[in-house]
Amino acid sequence: MAPNPLAAPRLVIDALSAGYGKRRILDGLSLPAIEGGGVTALIGPNAAGKTTLLRALAGLVPAKGSIRLDGTELTGLSVAGHARFVTYMPQALPQRVALTVFEATLSALMSARDETISTPEAHARALAALERLGIADLALRGLDELSGGQRQLASLAQSIVREPTVLLLDEPTSALDIHHQLRVMQLVEELARERAIIVVIVLHDIAQAARYARRIVVLENGAIAADGTPHEAITPQMLARVYRVEARVEACSRGFLQVIVDRAV
Ligand SMILES: Nc1ncnc2c1ncn2[C@@H]1O[C@H](COP(=O)(O)OP(=O)(O)OP(=O)(O)O)[C@@H](O)[C@H]1O
């Protein structure tokens, strides 16, 4: 059964195991449904398994167990089968290929669609994606001529233009200055609400995760260490246990949650 486009989609992960060769990184991981309409941030220390989880959701590492998007079981589908529903933006910046930013965005759109789409409409959508990210001025520049941050924005344009039901973003702001970090986070949050899609985003900036995500999932050693609203998940106790830092969690004058780290322990 195809996902119902009228209702916010639900992604249910049940007893998911995934890894590399014989090495299991996720071992029977289950999560209450991730719902569309808001951002879910996936945080946790280095090597916790965050990328592995996103890659398993995108069908890019072998996985056992169940990943259900509404009525559709994703495990067992081919990479192309996953791509009908899920778009994954990897942490590594895209290869230096000889396409312009516009051509790469257009090509990402065309490769994601089952049905045909008229050329003017495809062009309009590609341009709209670049405009939303504030990089329309880069449309005719070659991908191989861009700075690291510009390449990250171009890569993000290729992900959002596909209009997936599930958007998985692995540290999409790691190369960006503070203006572009906030711009991207605002856009991602708007897209989740406007299109009622599922967005799962891996972030290392805990305060940014708290500000833009509706739900925070903390991963540690391939298992869930905390899961809830930012206030529920981000606590001094969690930071001490999972990140091994002594930290205070306080609201700033505008009510945004701040993490003040005093020392590593
Ligand atoms: N291609 C691979 N082959 C073998 N092991 C891998 C591979 N990719 C990752 N791993 C291992 O899987 C574990 C989890 O890695 P993963 O990249 O999922 O962590 P992460 O939470 O995303 O980390 P980081 O925050 O450092 O990016 C690590 O121990 C890592 O060494």
UniProtKB/TrEMBL annotation:
GO terms for molecular function: ATP binding. It holds the Pfam family ABC_tran. SUPFAM superfamilies: P-loop containing nucleoside triphosphate hydrolases (SSF52540). The keyword Ligase does not apply. It is a peripheral membrane protein. It is found in: Cell membrane. InterPro entries: AAA+_ATPase (IPR003593), ABC_transporter-like_ATP-bd (IPR003439), ABC_transporter-like_CS (IPR017871), P-loop_NTPase (IPR027417), Siderophore_ABC-ATPase (IPR051535). Keywords: ATP-binding, Cell membrane, Ion transport, Iron, Iron transport, Membrane, Nucleotide-binding, Transport. The keyword Ion transport applies. It comes from the Bacteria. Residues 11-246 form the ABC transporter domain. This is ABC transporter ATP-binding protein. It comes from Ancylobacter koreensis.
